[in-house]
């Protein structure tokens, strides 16, 4: 047989086992999405349809923006086998100074926002130095940071500092301007954003699949690929419709969160830095032997966490309309819970940004649904705790079953 004939007969990239086998291997990812949809449907029934009122959907995004932002960074921290207990206190500390910059120091709000993120960088450098280069465990450093920055927040804003700047308030409390008018009773700008989101989703997924084909890598079954695209496109279209029907359209903070999710999903999946994080979480000793500069990567992970905490501080302060020393309470627990519920492994090495988004939405829907039903806040906390335990238990059990079947 000639070389040309052999080349012609080379098989196309193989699909990963069967559809059933693929779904079994990705049980967690699809299971959490199914659970989220089930929770939404359940509360939609229990609340007589009030959960998915257009204005409630917009409020859901605005109320949980801080969790979504912090969970992005927390996934990276946990995948690398670390933890960060300080982000809630950092949010209060940076948010307090952000309010002071605008109200008492009379800085323009864009400058105050940039300075707040810069403070986050400094805080991240401080904690990253002790963890990466001195070798103190992240649990201890960030526990100390939780106490340190909460104390500094109280010293900075012993009393509430109101922020009355309309431009700053619009970051988290307002929506995109309706520059395109209405299509019936639907906001034109929101419809455009939805079309762009669906188009971007299809384009990136198809491009990723073509890259796999190009390098002869194994593919997910065609049925799973098409089904995934259809489901996510349909969900995006439905959310777009609800937001387009809401009073103000697309919240500004949704654009911020969406941009961060897209950016960090790319970083974790397509960059050397992202691959090094997964390598460290999977096997730290092997990563060192492979030439990964683990100290540098660890340092940058916490610098990045500081940046995201600064962004979350800006969003939180903007939504509250004031700098408050008590802001950010339990934010670190919400972010950690979102990461674990979304499938990030307790032992590190496994986790996705999109999974953390699903985890944050599960908690957000639970909070909103229970609030609409008039449930006590204590029940909300208790239920979130049960969901977290169940999520981690399911993760451990599913891995044991997967290992036993191999």
Automatic annotation (TrEMBL):
Please indicate if the UniProt record lists Transmembrane as a keyword. yes
Q: Where in the cell is it found?
A: Cell membrane
Protein known as: Xylose transport system permease protein XylH
Q: What does this protein do?
A: Part of the binding-protein-dependent transport system for D-xylose. Probably responsible for the translocation of the substrate across the membrane.
Q: Which keywords are on file for this protein?
A: Cell inner membrane, Cell membrane, Membrane, Sugar transport, Transmembrane, Transmembrane helix, Transport
Q: What is the lineage of its organism?
A: Bacteria, Bacillati, Actinomycetota, Actinomycetes, Micromonosporales
Instruction: List the Pfam families hit by this protein, alphabetically.
Output: BPD_transp_2
The principal localisation class reads: membrane
Segments traversing the membrane: 27-46, 58-78, 85-103, 109-131, 138-159, 179-204, 225-244, 250-267, 297-315, 356-375
Domain of life (superkingdom):
Bacteria
Q: Does the keyword Nucleotide-binding apply?
A: no
Tell me how this protein sits in the membrane. Multi-pass membrane protein
UniProt cross-references to PANTHER family, sorted A to Z: ABC TRANSPORTER PERMEASE PROTEIN YPHD-RELATED-RELATED, XYLOSE TRANSPORT SYSTEM PERMEASE PROTEIN XYLH
Family matches, as InterPro entries: ABC_transp_permease
Provenance organism: Dactylosporangium darangshiense
